[in-house]
Automatic annotation (TrEMBL):
Name this protein carries in UniProt: DUF1690 domain-containing protein
Spans annotated as Disordered: 1-27
Keywords: Coiled coil
Coiled-coil zones: 54-81
Length: 174
């Protein structure tokens, strides 16, 4: 029923014959022949292929970097967990006699702050002879900016005060 109409029969084919001859220039024929003979792609095609390969390599490299970073983070978390577990086991087995790394770091930080406070308290005010000679030397240099060699006596006084303080300090060291 109707199936006969949709089928094409060999007698329905139409063939057209070209009455005008088609000719190509020898340059076009040679170029096409060279392309068929050559197994290498054209320069444009090669640049497109190279760009595509570079983009795929770049994408794959980014994926690998992300995977590597995820793995590093997982390893770091696992190591931290393992270290904390070991510290807990050591603390439990030693009945609190051993300190964890966190408490040791806090103790070190406390000691550092105490040392800094001690160092900041050490002033030249404990040694007035150094303070006065240093001020006299600075004033001399301010007065004699163009001829600082005039201040040789203040320099010698300052050196003597520093040497005396060094001797005192060396005597206090056991």
């Amino acid at each position: 029923m109707g199936a006969g109409q949709s089928r094409s029969s060999p007698s329905d084919e139409k063939i057209f014959h070209n009455e005008t001859p088609i000719s190509f220039s020898p340059d076009v024929v040679n170029t096409l022949a060279d392309r068929l003979d050559s197994s290498e792609p054209t320069q444009e095609r090669q640049s497109v292929l190279d760009a595509h390969i570079r983009s795929r390599i770049k994408d794959e490299l980014e994926v690998l970097k992300r995977n590597e970073e995820e793995i590093r983070q997982e390893i770091q978390v696992a190591l931290e967990k393992e270290n904390l577990d070991k510290e807990k086991q050591l603390a439990a087995s030693d009945d609190g006699n051993s300190a964890s790394s966190v408490t040791l770091l806090q103790d070190l930080e406390d000691i550092r702050t105490k040392i800094e406070k001690h160092e900041s308290k050490k002033q030249l005010s404990e040694h007035p002879e150094i303070d006065t000679t240093a001020k006299a030397l600075a004033e001399c240099y301010q007065r004699n900016k163009t001829t600082p060699l005039i201040c040789w006596s203040e320099v010698n006084k300052f050196k003597a005060a520093v040497a005396q303080l060094e001797r005192q300090h060396l005597q206090t060291i056991p």
